[in-house]
């Protein structure tokens, strides 16, 4: 079982991203195509992996902005299968930076693995003059082989971020992630880990929510949860349009997450429409559009809050909750 972790074997799963990106010019760090280079070729460039017994699988080859349920299903299934192998010490996943925080959140919510599941990425394509991917992959391997490591984390630019807190906060720099008030879990320096706080919560054995995982794997679509902002000049038209829209292939609208202003406040005109949606059975959750902090709960909140989750993670949490309802 998963906690009989005596092996030092690693699994590397490729999903695409800039780390596997290719540009026509070595000095082009933005005009590249993501998800081009095979994960086996990325692995071949990392000396730390040469001595390590390894299984390498290409699960997908996408730009992570295009993440879809079928890729999450394939990835979650392969992660769960490999976690169950006693000889596997940990799993590294190469992924695009743009939705890595959502994939990390999903895997942590479903699996809470007692072995490390380490997502890594790059901001510069594999063809760059100085690509950041090889060092990030090397650091991810150091984390995945650490004897105490567990849970789902993101490793980038020498820092280890927990799945619940990590967010991409910069469009360009090679260290684009922050973990808000919580801060990074630790850092990787010359393959040595320096920890600042505990690893993400893990189950002692197996998978945190096997039924939830199975429901995700069986789902044709995730329950439809839309995400919107409250902003100056907000009105309820978008909500009313959604309510009046016929069901899509994902079915009828089941939930709305609003990235509210400040402490989760919502424009009065938008609130009227959201209350109307709620009365019609649509689940409404308020997060904050602030990059840091959380919605601090207080009496008289007009709508339930996201319990500290960012808007994109709150959307996923609500979809999972509705899938399991
Ligand atoms: C992606 O998310 O797949 C492209 C962008 C990146 O990896 O930085």
Molecular structure report:
- By secondary structure, the protein is an alpha/beta fold.
- The protein folds into 2 domains: 9-214, L-asparaginase, N-terminal domain (Rossmann fold); 222-323, Rossmann fold (3-Layer(aba) Sandwich), CATH 3.40.50.40.
- Helix content is 28%, strand content 22%.
- It is built from 9 helices and 13 strands.
- An 8-stranded mixed beta sheet has the order 2-1-3-4-5-6-9-10. Strands 11-12-13 form a 3-stranded parallel beta sheet, sandwiched between helices.
- Helix 4 links the parallel strand 3 and strand 4 (116-120).
- Helix 7 runs parallel beside helix 8.
- 47% of the residues are buried.
- The structure holds succinic acid.
- The site of succinic acid (SIN) has 12 residues, from loops.
- Succinic acid (SIN) is lined by residues 16-18, 34, 63-65, 96-98, 121, 123.
Outline:
This protein has helices at residues 39-44, 47-50, 69-83, 100-111, 133-144, 210-218, 237-244, 268-279, 311-323, and strands spanning 9-16, 54-62, 88-94, 116-120, 151-156, 159-162, 167-168, 177-178, 186-189, 192-195, 224-229, 253-260, 283-288. The protein has 325 residues and is an alpha/beta fold.
